[in-house]
Amino acid sequence: MSDGFRDNEAQSRFELEVDGAIAFVVYRKTQDTITLVHTEVPPELGGRGIGSKLARATLDAVRAQRRKLIVKCEFIQGFMKKNPEDNDLLA
């Protein structure tokens, strides 16, 4: 996993902390699936590839949790189009 990446289950989001700012992906979990709802990267982290690093760490975490993925977040949908090797995660 990326340094600074964590699953903040209390807030239902995956987080990536960089330079004191937190980018995150909001999720909803069931026993078998995880739905990625929304991704947010603070403006001060923009243009540094932080969103892609967060997306990669998020998909790796979903794989490690052995859940299937439902993607409602447009950013993650776009990331997966560029990385079709992750489509096996889709529910």
UniProtKB/TrEMBL annotation:
Alphabetical list of InterPro entries matching this protein: Acyl_CoA_acyltransferase, Gcn5-rel_NAT, GNAT_YJDJ
Gene3D superfamilies to which the protein is assigned, alphabetical: 3.40.630.30
N-acetyltransferase domain: residues covered: 6-91
PROSITE patterns: GNAT_YJDJ
Domain of life: Bacteria
PANTHER family named among the record's database cross-references: BSR4717 PROTEIN (PTHR31435:SF10), PROTEIN NATD1 (PTHR31435)
Protein name according to UniProt: N-acetyltransferase
Organism for this UniProt entry: Bradyrhizobium jicamae
